[in-house]
Amino acid sequence: MTILTLADMALTVGWLSALTAGMISVYLLMKHCFPYFWKDLVFLLKVIRYGLKLELFKLTSNVCTVLDRFIQQAQRIPNKPFVICDGSVHTYSDVERRSNRLAAVFLESVNLRKGECVALLMSNEPDFLCVWFGLAKIGCSVAFLNTSIKSKSLLHCFSCCGAKTLIVGADLVESLDIILPTLLENNIQVWTMKSQSENVQVHTLLDKIDAACDQPVPPALHATTSLKSPTLYIFTSGTTGLPKAAVITHLQSLKAAAGFWAFGANEDDVVYIPLPLYHSAASLIGIGGTIQLGATCVLKKKFSASQFWDDCRKHDVTVFQYIGELCRYLCNQPKTKRDKVHKVRMGVGNGLRQDVWQKFQSRFGNIKMYEVYGSTEGNLCFMNHIGKIGSVGRSNFLYKLLFKYELVKYNMENDEPVKDQYGFCHLFSFAGETGLLLSKVSTISPFFGYAGSKQLTEKKLMRNVFSEGDAYFNTGDLMAEDPEGFIYFKDRVGDTFRWKGENAATTEVMETLGLVDFIQEVNVYGVEIPGHEGRAGMAAIIVRPGLKFDGKKLFEHVMRDLPPYARPLFIRLQEVMKMTSTFKQQKFQLVQSGFNPSTITAPLYVLDYQQNGYIPLTDIIYQSILAGERKL
């Protein structure tokens, strides 16, 4: 018996040793060949689980919207701080009751009804959320207006979404003085968050809120059975020039609200939101994500690099939202001994350059930075859940099974995709090559387009890309995917450039500049400036015969009619405007040549806020720009 027992034990030990060795071998093989397999699997299962929840909403026709989730949280954690802003704390219950009062005012005094669209022009403040939720509670869709856009663009926004009512913040009422008569002529009623108004045609809301009931309005007013119902309109610049109203459905809102959760945030986190609420990042991901978690957010009226870390320390911030430019500003601040004294563990955003990313983590500590790639209206999202520096997102075999996207060859000089003799696009055969990112439109990845003209929606689609009848969303971005499945942003093509965290439409800038009397023809594009995110606007101009370039007149024109991010920083005078073989203005060579006065023989000018004009761009000014000494 003893001999048999020892033999059995030896066999068992041998079997366990072999099993252990096999498991170690598999582990080492996976770590070497598939180092991100388990992280990818866990993250993707999380995403799929949330997706199945949304599918259940479709099957049962019982949609739990972001607003419904907020109401649930207000019942579950009524006394928990929801929004902290300018030192004041607003609990979930506070915002719930105030939005109920506003809903009652909108029904009784403003006379709004379910299904109407209302435009909202407000800065970052708690009442932005209360107005938004109050409108949503009575079944109105809300159009978020960019507080930087000028009169012509602002008026255009109303015609896009069909809004006949405008709610404006107290601090922005005066900005409407020029266009108020036109708004009233178009039968658009204007309400402001004030108790008294100097203009009898601008109605007040604050004096009516206190007397209103804070009990919930009937839930049937905001109930919906379809995830595809529009809930918001968020304006985005594109190739058509004037802002376009991207349709935001409940499906898109719910997907965005899961972002923080997907990256591992929880209800104990405090989220810092310094980005404008009229953008999808702050409203859909930031506020929506806070609500989804039942967390607390610190809302900043306007980003301040000097106050950022003090705010984070004061409020025990653990998660913050960013754009790449924001992180660069923080890195440029004077160093202090307290740079790593904070509780921030996670940043969520987009546009973070590799060099800034490395500097940021080296200086402020091992903060996990999660890049998210996607446009407001797009049907594709990449998420860099691994946190690899420089990458905007992560893909793999399983992801590609669910979300169909392709990188196609692109001719930069002709500004169009490369096609074969049959008119189909070319795919790349090697990883790492740069191509135009296209995302297939399907039931899993629908494209809801823009409000208003169907032509705007159609222009963002490419049809018959690889076969007859297929349709892809054209992101307008050049991307590359490495052998490991990491996605990298390379450049933006078409008629947009991104500056100061905003997308500017070259067509809108061209149309605005074209109104100046001495300009005969204009071509607008973006140029890179070392040490800055995105591209700065530059305009190549042909001056009308018999007239002269007037830098002060042009300055006054762009200051009046263009938002700061869309104003051309540089002007280049041209004799002729080159065209592509397809009769489009040639931008590629202009972009490549940049704004260096020592290599460009054509006269160059730079925007100068101190001299209130466009002044000659000299070598001294050029060098000061490269050194980061000149404010742009």
What is the element layout, followed by pairings?
Blueprint: H1 2-33, H2 37-60, H3 66-76, E1 81-85, E2 88-91, H4 92-108, E3 117-121, H5 126-137, E4 141-144, H6 151-161, E5 165-168, H7 180-185, E6 189-192, E7 202-204, H8 206-209, E8 230-236, E9 244-249, H9 250-257, H10 259-262, E10 270-273, H11 280-293, E11 296-299, H12 308-315, E12 319-323, H13 324-331, E13 346-350, H14 354-364, E14 368-373, E15 382-383, E16 393-394, H15 397-402, E17 405-408, E18 410-411, E19 416-417, E20 435-440, H16 454-459, E21 461-463, E22 471-481, E23 486-492, E24 496-499, E25 502-505, H17 506-513, E26 519-527, E27 536-543, H18 551-561, E28 570-573, H19 588-593, E29 604-608, E30 613-616, H20 619-626
Helix pairs in contact: 3-4, 4-5, 9-11, 13-14
Structure overview:
By secondary structure, this protein is of the alpha/beta class. The protein folds into 4 domains: 63-252, Rossmann fold; 258-393, Rossmann fold, CATH 3.40.50; 395-492, Luciferase, Domain 3 (Luciferase, domain 3, Roll), CATH 2.30.38; 496-626, GMP Synthetase, Chain A, domain 3. 34% of the residues lie in helices and 23% in strands. It is globular and about 70 Å long. It starts with a helix and ends in a 6-residue tail after the last helix.
